[in-house]
Specification:
The protein is of the alpha+beta class and about 350 residues long. It has helices spanning about 5-25, 30-70, 75-85, 90-150, 155-185, 200-210, 210-215, 240-260, 290-295, 305-310, 315-325; strands spanning about 195-200, 220-225, 235-240, 265-270, 275-285, 335, 340-350. Bound molecules: adenosine-5'-diphosphate (ADP). Adenosine-5'-diphosphate (ADP) binds next to helix 8 and helix 11.
Length: about 350
C-alpha cells in the first residue's frame, strides 16, 4: 500500500484519539463537552507531532541521498533539491530521478567506451597508413645517399629512386589531405555551399580528368542516357556544393575504373524525377560480397587490402563521400552482385523552377 506521510499521521492521530476518547467516555467523571475538546486537541496534537516527525525524517533521508550524490552530480544538485523538497512523495520522486540519472550515466559511459574503441582503432589505422609511404620514401632516399657515399651513383638509377620517393610522398600528401577532410566533415565544420550547376558538364569534366587512367585499363567511360551527351546548357541542373559533389564523383568513377573489369565499361547514369536527379556509377567488375557491402563506407576499410593499397587509394574515399552526401541530406547506396558489377548511387535536389 502506498501511504503518504500525511495519511499515516492522520491514521495514528485518529487511533490515539480513539483510545483517549474511549477512555474518557468510559470514565464517567469527564463531561461530554470536555471529552469532545480532548478529542480535538489530541487529534491536532498527534497529527502535528507525527506529521512533522515523518517529514523531518524524510527530508533527512533525502538530504543524505543528496549529499551522497552531490559529488557525482554537483551541477544538477541544486535543480534537484529545488524541484523536490516540499512536494508530495519526495522519496519516490528522488528515487525516479536517481534511476533516470543512473540510466543516463550508463548510456554516456557506453557511448564513451564505444568512442574510445573507435579512436584507438582510428589511431592504429592512421599510423599504419602513414608508415607505408613514409618508409617507402625513406628507403629510396637512403639508397641514393648510400650510393653517393660509396661513389657508385648512377644518374639513371638515382632519378628512378627519386621518382619513386616522389610517388610515395604524393600518396602521403593525398592521405593527409583526406584525413584533414574527414576530420573536418566529422566535426561538422565544413558547410556545403549549395549552388545551381549542370551535372552533365561536371561528369564530362571528370571523364576528361580520368581519361588516361581509364585508358590504362582499357575501360570505356559512358554517360547514360546517351542523349545527355548532346545536351547543352542548362543541361541537367542540380542544387548542391559543386566542388564536394565533384570530389564524390571523382572517387566513385575512379573506384569503378580501379575495381571494375579490365576492358570493361563504367556507366554514369543521371535520371531525373520530379524534384531530384538520381546519379549512379556502375561498373561491370567482380562485385562486392554481401558481408563487405555495408563496411566499404568505413574509414580505411578495404576488401582486398594489398590490392587496394597498391592501386594508391587512401581507403578514405567512400567514407568521405558518405559524409558529403549525408551533409546534402541525401543517402549513398551500394548495390552489387558478385561477378556482375557494382553500382553506387545517390540523389541530389533539382533547383525549383523560377
Ligand atoms: P580506396 O582508397 O581503397 O579505393 P575507398 O574508400 O574508395 O578506398 O573504397 C573502399 C573499398 O571499397 C576499396 O578498397 C574496395 O575494396 C571497395 N570498393 C570501392 N568501390 C568498389 C567497386 N566499384 N567495386 C568493387 N569494390 C569496390
Amino acid at each position: 500500500m502506498n501511504l503518504s506521510s500525511r495519511t499515516v499521521a492522520i491514521l495514528i492521530a485518529l487511533l490515539v484519539a480513539g483510545v483517549l476518547t474511549t477512555t474518557a467516555i468510559i470514565v464517567p467523571t469527564l463531561p461530554f463537552r470536555e471529552a469532545v475538546l480532548a478529542v480535538g486537541i489530541t487529534v491536532a496534537g498527534c497529527f502535528l507531532l507525527v506529521y512533522l516527525s515523518f517529514e523531518a525524517l524524510i527530508f533527512q533521508e533525502i538530504n543524505g541521498i543528496y549529499a551522497g550524490l552531490e559529488h557525482i552530480k554537483r551541477k544538477e544538485f541544486k535543480r534537484l533539491s529545488n524541484k523536490f523538497l516540499f512536494r508530495s512523495e519526495p522519496i519516490k520522486r528522488v528515487r525516479d530521478e536517481i534511476l533516470q540519472m543512473a540510466e543516463r550515466r550508463q548510456q554516456e559511459l557506453e557511448e564513451l567506451k564505444r568512442l574510445q574503441v573507435l579512436r584507438r582503432e582510428f589511431l592504429a589505422d592512421v599510423s599504419h597508413e602513414l608508415k607505408t609511404p613514409i618508409f617507402a620514401a625513406q628507403g629510396f632516399v637512403h639508397t641514393i645517399l648510400d650510393e653517393d657515399e660509396e661513389g657508385e651513383s648512377d644518374p639513371v638509377m638515382r632519378r628512378k629512386f627519386l621518382q619513386k620517393a616522389a610517388v610515395s610522398l604524393d600518396a602521403l600528401d593525398a592521405l593527409v589531405q583526406d584525413l584533414v577532410t574527414i576530420s573536418q566533415l566529422e566535426k561538422g565544420v565544413v558547410r556545403m555551399r549549395r549552388q545551381r550547376f549542370d551535372l552533365v558538364t561536371l561528369v564530362r569534366e571528370i571523364f576528361e580528368l580520368l581519361e588516361q587512367q581509364a585508358a590504362r585499363r582499357d575501360v570505356r567511360l559512358e554517360l547514360f542516357p546517351p542523349t545527355l551527351a548532346e545536351l547543352s546548357d542548362p543541361g541537367l541542373p542540380v542544387l548542391a556544393d559543386r566542388n564536394r559533389i565533384r570530389q564524390v564523383l571523382v572517387n566513385l568513377i575512379d573506384n569503378a575504373i580501379k575495381y571494375g573489369r579490365e576492358h570493361g565499361h563504367v556507366v554514369v547514369s543521371l535520371v531525373e524525377s520530379k524534384s531530384a536527379v538520381r546519379l549512379a556509377v556502375r561498373d561491370d567488375g567482380a562485385g562486392i560480397a554481401q558481408e563487405h557491402l555495408n563496411r566499404i563506407f568505413e574509414r580505411f576499410y578495404r576488401i582486398d587490402k594489398s590490392r587496394s593499397r597498391e592501386s594508391g587509394g587512401s581507403g578514405l574515399g567512400l567514407a568521405i563521400s558518405k559524409h558529403i552526401i549525408e551533409a546534402h541530406k541525401s543517402t549513398i547506396r551500394v548495390r552489387s552482385e558478385l561477378g556482375q558489377g557494382t553500382t553506387l548511387e545517390f540523389k541530389l535536389p533539382r533547383p525549383k523552377a523560377q
